[in-house]
């Protein structure tokens, strides 16, 4: 039987990765949209050739890998270029995700995506779990993890969907504001519940 798909999302610093890791420990197959986004632009893949053709060789590093920082600079300042890039990459990323999820062998599989709602990837899922944390906690965690300033983290938060918007789409919410042992118990509880679902719905 084909696994049903759980969408796992949450803002920066909410603890999505820790939650994802707990599900992996239960043997759940999982794909991260960020990883899929990296695969589609690897050297030798058609997307990279198109990006170079469009933006020029300045977006490549010496070893032929995509220079993300250079590309980010180009599209950050120009909404039209950003839209061009998204139109190229989003369908390819979607295809990678669909192909990977189709191979999953657990009763349900997980698509982890920070932009699950904004990118339309939620259409691939039958149920959505939102990892939630207060904005202060998100800022504190991200500053520790990325050595970034509060202002930098705030800018990323402002670019992502608001907590309210994300929670509107949630079938399940995991408020991640305690320790890892508690988080593991919560994920185990959710996992056992998900195993009872057919097609993601009770």
Automatic annotation (TrEMBL):
Location(s) in or outside the cell: Cytoplasm
Coiled-coil blocks: none
Reactions that this protein is recorded to catalyse: 3'-dephospho-CoA + ATP = ADP + CoA + H(+)
Residues reported in the UniProt entry to bind ATP: 13-18
Annotated GO biological process: coenzyme A biosynthetic process
Predominant place of localization: cytoplasm
UniProt KW keywords: ATP-binding, Coenzyme A biosynthesis, Cytoplasm, Kinase, Nucleotide-binding, Transferase
GO MF term set: ATP binding; dephospho-CoA kinase activity
InterPro entries: Depp_CoAkinase, P-loop_NTPase
Enzyme Commission number, as recorded: 2.7.1.24
PROSITE patterns cross-referenced by the UniProt entry: DPCK
Classification via Pfam families: CoaE
Pathway(s) the chain acts in: Cofactor biosynthesis; coenzyme A biosynthesis; CoA from (R)-pantothenate: step 5/5
SUPFAM superfamilies: P-loop containing nucleoside triphosphate hydrolases
Single GO cellular component term: cytoplasm
Family under the similarity heading: Belongs to the CoaE family.
Designated name of the protein: Dephospho-CoA kinase
Species of the source: Pseudomonas marincola
